[in-house]
Amino acid sequence: MLKGYLAIVLHAHLPFVRHPEFDDFLEEDWLFEAITETYIPLIEMLDGLERDKVDYKLTISLSPTLMAMLMDEHLQTKYLKHLDNLIELSEKEIDRTKWEPQFNRLAHMYNDMFKRARYVFADQYKRNIVLAFKHFQETGNLEVITCCATHGYLPLMEVERQASVRAQVKVAADFYQKIFGKKPNGIWLPECGYNPGDDEIVKKEGIKYFLTDTHGILFGTPRPRFGVFSPYMCRSGVAAFGRDTETSKAVWSAVEGYPGDFNYRDFYRDIGFDLDYDYIRPYINSDGVRINTGIKYYKITGNTNTKYPYDPDVAKSRAADQAGNFMFNREKQVEYLGGQMADRLPVIVAPYDAELFGHWWYEGPQWLDFLIRKTCYDQKTLALTTPGQYLKKYKNYQVLQPAFSSWGWKGYSEVWLEGSNDWVYRHLHKMVERMVEVANTNRNAKGLLARALNQMARELLLAQSSDWAFIMKTGSHVPYAVERFRGHAENFDELYNDVKNGTLEEEYIKKLEDKNNIFQDIDFSVYCT
Amino acid sequence: MKKETMGSEAKPLRIRERKAYRFPPGYGDNKIVILVRDPWWMFSYWEIRKEKQEEIVRKIETSGDSVSRSVLRVYDVTDISFNGKNAHSYFDIELKGLASNWYINVNTPDRAFVVEIGIVSKKGIFYPLARSNMVRMPRFGMSDQLDAEWMMPEEEYWKMFGLSGGFGIGKGSLEVREMFKKRLEEQITSGGISSGASFYRKPSERKFWLVVNCELIVYGATEPDAKVTVQGKPIKLRQDGTFTLRFALPDGKQVIPVEATSNDGIDHRCITPIVTRKTE
Lengths: 529, 280
Hints:
Chain A contains 19 helices and nine strands. Chain A is of the alpha/beta class. Chain B is α+β, with helices and mostly antiparallel strands and 280 residues long.
């Protein structure tokens, strides 16, 4: 008998990194690795589910910056070059490891994986894999939701909380509509950063729900009746879903989490670092710095530097076991909750970063595939759902004002507001103030002036990406993050002065439009107040 | 460093020369802003115009008083419309040096605050230079407000709270709050790829280490149009008839017959290196 629902939500996001001025650019590899290791394995999984007619339910949020990069011709071309390089390297590896069968089979495994990726990317979806997600949404099984335009962390974005929060949401919703032909049902608030009142802005775009961390609901007002096992209605009429903790820990926790299984592939041992420099040189960064190639031959093994070769068959059976374990625990969870939920069935909301699956946790897509299939066929207690579908099940939900919260470390804003990155906010807030000022004074702008204002909006949005502050805190790629922030502030400042002084230069605007070409249909009037 | 692409992207544009941008030390504003960091702390940044500062100093001095210190005055303005005088309470933080921002520990979740930056005179009078926006600190803990439509016994709420927080059935509000604080300090998000943050623990052995591997290069040359096999597998020759093969070399003996046959199939040569690796 059905006792409850499980809503798995994957959040896919990367910051907008596009450098046509360089043949090869280190930070562009973030996208390329994620395509090969996460997005394409997920697409293959969804293809398989469709082929086998599995009636699954899954939710994925695709950030607008990620979609913009996936649809960008320049990056598509670069990705294929990157992938062809990997295929070549994996072929060399097949020859090189001929006398070591335990590695040779892995070289073949990667070679197959890269060639399949090439097929999915280039042949099946003609380089635009956003179309894959669109297709799966149209089958009724996948719910694709949006995220803020450039993944701006809303709680710190502006003091007045009008113009730039609205712009982050509206630009994202419009971009989604252009791609998917309808309004997004839900939104992933970047880092689950929720500031009371922002739901009003979400509501204006026709969005029906957002996700918060556990305490966003638990500390809400009035006291929540169903814990995080039911959505709640904000007074604005937008629903809020809270993250379940048990399912988070099962996957995320470094101590108890599934991805730490000793049989799983070790992320850190990569041939980009392990092999002879002259041999690997053509496949690492063009400046000669060793980087991860994605070819990794060892399993986690244990808490040791001595690693043993990875065995994909053993790993796969561990993924199946753990999927079974996860499902069993959810069955118990909903059975237990059954007595607490009055007239309704509980929903367990389990959100994860999509890039965990495949990139960090190589077996993640297999685990998810097993979990979905087992849940659909091996039991009847638990059913998969999406937040959008669950919302249709009941007529009324408790009204609640969720609490200020995020899913960042310590649950609030400290990750994005600490010694390494707090200096950005006075500049960001000033940019918002200036954007609103010139948008208001040039409401009817046409031609070049409108182009300048639209580009200012793009530069502001890009400067607002939460990724820059995050990277400044975590400590690797810091100069890049600082330079990106500075660069967008510079472009914004130049345009602001040109607009104010009437010194617009078409060539300069054109240069910026070509470089930071995200949101080509943006309309600066989104900042008018 | 990266090489610039010299392709079509780099065509010269006639653009006015622009100075490299640096963030200005100030924008000429006279203001103070506060932001919520978490239920206990907020962050404040400010910029005070020189004229404003001088004006206030003159005012203090003409009143026969003198400047004592610069402070942030933090007002609890929960549920009131603040007019500068009606706060529930306030406390001062003395500013030292050239600070232009400050983390303020208010330590009281779910209360609203406004901050003024100003000067305190020797006589103890406070002269504000700027007043901030108002923020409300997040609540930390379950609301006391109950919803008539969705009522249940007290212990049932705590049960749902415990189940949601992943620590089973909570017993009392204080204990559960502490447990929840711990839960928030666990890292249960990754931060994505761009962070480069190591997500799963790395080995915690001592740092010193050594790795030694062997590879074998087998290379040679023959007529460019000859057919060559190595260990029975056909290989490709370079245009000049040379070839290079590279193998990871495990312990043990490798017999490596290299056989070449001329294009017309008449001539045949075979050379067989035998290599043994032994690691001690």
